[in-house]
Amino acid sequence: MSSFRIAAVVVLAAVGLAPVMIAPARAADPFGTWLTGDKKGKVHIVNCGGALCGNLVWLKEPIDPDTNKPKLDKHNVDAGKQSRPLLGVPIVLNMKPSGTPDKWDGQVYNAEDGNTYSGSFTLTGATTAELKGCVLGGLICKAQTWTKTH
């Protein structure tokens, strides 16, 4: 192959790859279904008026071994909600944009203890996010990494 042909092939290859190399990276998207950090549940996150809202849509163990029926929100501090099914709990997350890119602040409900905490949801990658729940005005926080499933 002549040096001219080799140079032409290299130039054509470089031009062909240029759009791939200069295309901006696709921004991470908070919407969709996320596997919780303990891998015991999945939360579906949607846009609700510019905020993030999430519902529990899957449980690794959906049946209560004591009753052999679907698990209930039995730990909820609101006694009126303790008999509702845990799957589909309407607001597991309610987060508004924080002003920092890829971060939302608001409330997160923990069905394991029935309490709602202040917290944040921060995208850490295209398919990962950190969910943080805090008490005492943010002095004590617990975080877990969630993984997007679809």
Structure at a glance:
With about 150 residues, the protein is mainly beta. It contains one helix and ten strands; from the N terminus they run αββββββββββ. The protein has one helix at about 5-20, and strands at about 30-35, 40-50, 50-60, 65, 70, 95, 105-110, 115-125, 130-135, 140-150.
Comma- or semicolon-separated keywords:
150 residues; mainly beta; Lipocalin; two-stranded antiparallel ribbon; 1 helix; 10 strands; 13% helix; 43% strand; globular; disordered N terminus
Folded structure, characterized:
- The protein is mostly beta strands and 150 residues long.
- It has a single domain, classed as Lipocalin (Beta Barrel).
- The protein has one helix and ten strands, in the order αββββββββββ.
- The chain has one helix at 3-22, and strands at 32-35, 41-48, 51-59, 63-64, 69-70, 93-97, 103-110, 115-123, 128-135, 140-148.
- The strands form two sheets. The protein has an eight-stranded antiparallel beta barrel with strand order 1-2-3-6-7-8-9-10.
Topology record:
Blueprint: H1 3-22, E1 32-35, E2 41-48, E3 51-59, E4 63-64, E5 69-70, E6 93-97, E7 103-110, E8 115-123, E9 128-135, E10 140-148
Antiparallel strand pairs: 1-2, 1-10, 2-3, 3-6, 4-5, 6-7, 7-8, 8-9, 9-10
| Class by SSE composition | mainly beta
Silhouette = globular
Q: What is the averaged pLDDT score? A: 82
> Mind summarizing the main beta sheet?
8 strands, antiparallel, barrel
Number of strands: 10
In quaternary terms, these chains amount to single chain
Strand proportion, as a percent range, falls in 35-45%
Total of domains:
1
Spatially, the strands of the biggest sheet line up as: 1-2-3-6-7-8-9-10
What is the level-2 CATH architecture name? Beta Barrel
Q: Radius of gyration from the CA trace?
A: 22 Å
Give the CATH topology.
Lipocalin
Helix percentage: 10-25%
Enumerate how many helices there are, as a single number: 1
Order of helices and strands, N to C? Answer: HEEEEEEEEEE
Span of the ends, CA to CA: 48 Å
CATH class: Mainly Beta
Unreliable sequence segments? 2-26
